[in-house]
Amino acid sequence: MIIIGIAGGTGSGKSTVVQRISEHFSKNDVAILPLDSYYKDNSHVPEEVRRDINFDHPNSIEYELITKHIKELKDGKTIQCPIYSYISCTRDKKTVPVKPAHVLIVEGILSLTNKELRDTMDVKIFVDCDADLRLIRVINRDTKERGRDAETVMNRYMETVRPMHEQFIEPTKSYADIIVPKGGHNKVAIDMVINFIEKALREQGEYPWR
Questions:
Q1: pLDDT in single tens digits along all 210 residues of the chain
Q2: What is the DSSP code string of the chain?
Q3: Structure pTM?
Q4: Distance, CA of 112 to CA of 7 (rounded, Å)
Q5: Would you say 137 and 130 are in contact if contact means Cβ atoms under 8 Å apart?
Q6: What is the predicted pLDDT for the residue at 96?
Q7: What whole-number distance in Å separates Cα of residue 101 and Cα of residue 29?
Q8: Rg (Cα) of the chain, in Å, rounded?
Q9: C-beta separation of 107 from 18 below 8 A
Q10: Contact 184, 15 (CB under 8 A)
Q11: CATH of 2-203 among 2.30.42.10, 3.40.50.300, 3.40.50.720, 3.30.1330.60
């Protein structure tokens, strides 16, 4: 198993990079752990307070659980990945089973922030993108998928997302083995990432397997 960590700012194109990598390999050969699924459960917090939770701060993530799950996957065990709702800001009682695979992708804005999590990764990738493009994507996503209006999204961006990005996310670029500029639409860079993964799998004796 090769473990790929993919970080980058909100709206940078991380999900697109993950999709491109996944499409290259067979479905059962890639497992994905979205870091967003490991936000701490806030069901004990009053509903009116949940909207103000800072989801861009490392303290919002249950790193211990995702690290534990990664180690279990490496040991050949199936894990139960949490389901997190941005609407209610709580974890669902249901979980999603994730089986071990040749390629495990851990994706999220804070994927490279925690040292213990970083140490589980074989390849660390930072998806880079201009701030104005990221803001446009965030507004589009949050208004369509998370029930927020544009003004609320922009205020949150200026008050929380931007300063958290500068404090916690942008500095993790220094940990990256590969930086993908221009977001998730940089085909040349993504092809290089795929070639890098294939090479690593060959060195592990796990490729080609099809």
A1: 999 999 998 888 898 999 999 999 888 899 999 999 999 988 888 877 777 788 899 999 999 999 999 999 999 999 999 999 877 888 888 999 999 999 999 999 999 999 999 999 999 999 998 877 777 777 777 777 666 777 877 888 888 888 999 999 999 999 999 999 887 788 898 998 899 888 888 888 766 554
A2: -EEEEEEE-TTSSHHHHHHHHHHHS-GGGEEEEEGGGGBPP-TTS-HHHHTT--TTSGGGB-HHHHHHHHHHHHTT--EEEEEEETTTTEEEEEEEEE---SEEEEESTTTTT-HHHHTT-SEEEEE---HHHHHHHHHHHHHHHS---HHHHHHHIIIIIHHHIIIIIGGGGGG-SEEETTGGG-HHHHHHHHHHHHHHHHHTT-----
A3: 0.88
A4: 6
A5: no
A6: 95
A7: 5
A8: 17
A9: yes
A10: yes
A11: 3.40.50.300
For the record, the structure tokens of 56 come out as 């861009």
**131/96 Cα distance (integer angstroms):** 33
Write down the residue that tokens 């085909």 correspond to: 187
Phi-psi region of 10 (alpha: psi -120 to 50; beta: other; left: phi over 0): beta
Rounded distance, CA 29 to CA 159, Å? 40
Cα gap 59→182, rounded to integer Å: 28
